[in-house]
């Protein structure tokens, strides 16, 4: 199986498992930090599925060497993340920031290594897109470039979470939160900035594509303005969280 096919089947596998996880939400009433413990795998599987499909789309113009390494490597790292998150949910314990036992600490450490590898692969893909002109309008071209850069920058928020040993600022993780997302409604939550920033890889190319539909002679400039606005929103959310203020009370 080629790395591209492997990536494609990884997307399909995550999609196929989503209904199973949703069924477990209904069947298993156990809670972890104030929420059903299966909601976290559900959220991550949705996000990872979208991410993998996006990477596959962005690789379509790249040479085989980039496609094989980035596509195959991304699939492997995301499978590892999904397996550990699901395993820890089944055990009824946290997957992130968990050092309560040696095995928990090891698994969290493995997740950190996998994310580091994925970030390197994403940086490789970003470098390729910045160095090559794909057959697309200026809006989509620059939307892809800024989207990749935005996601790389947002990855740094994960480092802030690790330094804080959690995602909540001002209170312990858990407690009252927004529906489904579970972002804290009582304290600052770094996950909001992390989530918005990471999904720049999808949002900014879509905005760029929409800009191209207007046939604007300044498509590249509009894409830059959109990227700066998106970056500003992410920074505001980060500063709000660091100040201990919830996104919504």
Structure in words:
With 249 residues, the protein is mainly alpha-helical. It is 71% helix and 3% strand. It has two domains: 132 residues; 113 residues, no CATH class. The chain contains eight helices and four strands; from the N terminus they run αββααααββααα. The longest helix is centred in the middle third of the chain and has 30 residues.
SSE string, helix = H, strand = E? HEEHHHHEEHHH
Q: Helix/strand-derived class? A: mainly alpha
User: Which term fits the overall shape?
Assistant: globular
Number of helices: 8
Mean pLDDT: 92
The percentage helix is over 70%
How many distinct domains? 2
Topology record:
Layout: H1 3-27, E1 31-32, E2 35-36, H2 39-58, H3 64-91, H4 102-131, H5 138-164, E3 168-169, E4 188-189, H6 191-198, H7 200-213, H8 219-242
Antiparallel strand pairs: 1-2, 3-4
Helix pairs in contact: 1-2, 1-3, 2-3, 3-4, 4-5, 5-6, 5-7, 5-8, 6-8, 7-8
